[in-house]
Amino acid sequence: MVFKEYDKHRSVFYFDRPSLNLKVFIAIHRNKTIFPSFGATRMMMYANEDEALNDALRLSRLMSYKSALAGLNYGGAKGVILFDGNHPDKSEVLKIYSDMVNELKGKFITGADVGLSQEDVQLMTRNSPYFVGTKNKPEKCTALGIVKGIEVCLKQVFGKGFISDHTFAIQGLGKVGLDLLGLIYNQAGKIYVSDISSEKIEVAKNLYPNIVPVPVEDIFKLEIDVFCPCALAHAISPKMIAELKCKIVAGGANNQLFNQEVGDALFSKGILYAPDYVINSGGLISVADEYENRFKNENHIEKKLEHIKSVLETIFEQSQTQNLATNRVADRLAEDIFNNH
Ligand code: NAD
Q1: Which domain holds residue 206?
Q2: Any atom of ligand 1 within 6 Å of the Cβ of 114
Q3: Alpha helices, DSSP H only, in 70-173?
Q4: pLDDT 10s digits, 35-71
């Protein structure tokens, strides 16, 4: 196996159940003895095991950065279930996956990412105490945090932090993208959307008739104020930079930039990039709160999400004074936290 994304990870677990054609990677990037590592689980088709392993490595690393800047003591982790679409019974797969999580005895706390629903997590909590995200809707908190982050971005670029009348493009209408759409719909100007699933577009169009669906290959080229990547990784690659016409990139997807240099190019082009793991940390903030048994109500979480605003303000300020891309500033701040505390 090729450990391309390896970054001195603490542990990487590999589980194989040939009778079910089920393979799982759980990567733990950082943790402290008394604190577990957090990271949701994704279930999807991968071209091969290397691709799945490197996704787990890359995402678990990002979770360490996310946790540090969210002001949490937890390390970063990620679970990846290789799904080939041939499992006869998803609930059997989920039961076995929750057994695997139990084997780690609480070092790894997880919930739903791409390909898993809240109902799936509910099912697994029956067999394991190490699943979170059932008392609240983490994706809703993720979307709420993104809106707060977008307001900071708008203030930075336009002088006023209001959604009203600004134009948006949302890439991906899954759990996070659809919730984000719902939160901005009544205030925003034109909202363009794209999804590889025509079903997702239809659902969104029924709920929010004024949205404008565009082909997936065009969503990032539009002349809009805010581009919100809410699908999978690498929403922005080097060759896309020349075609971007937005003023701000701020969305829910993890690992939005193809590499760090893409962040430099956005900075040089004058496009404000809200580092993904900062602006999308609302879900983590809410599940950590749930894990600590503090979850009271949505108002309580909403207050906690204000933290995202102050971190973004610090990043934007340092980016200007240091003449450094926002992704680099965020990484420095996070590394400073988990290397020195
Ligand atoms: P999801 O699986 O519910 O939604 C993803 C959506 O993206 C799907 O509708 C899918 O059809 C669509 N999609 C895939 N490829 C696309 C493409 N090329 N163009 C347009 N649409 C495409 O997943 P989610 O939970 O909404 O997560 C979305 C992203 O946000 C992921 O990167 C995830 O890691 C990240 N994220 C999620 C949460 C959360 O609370 N769920 C928290 C933080 C970060």
Answers
A1: 138-281+309-340
A2: yes
A3: 90-103, 118-125, 138-158
A4: 999 999 999 999 999 999 999 999 999 999 999 999 9
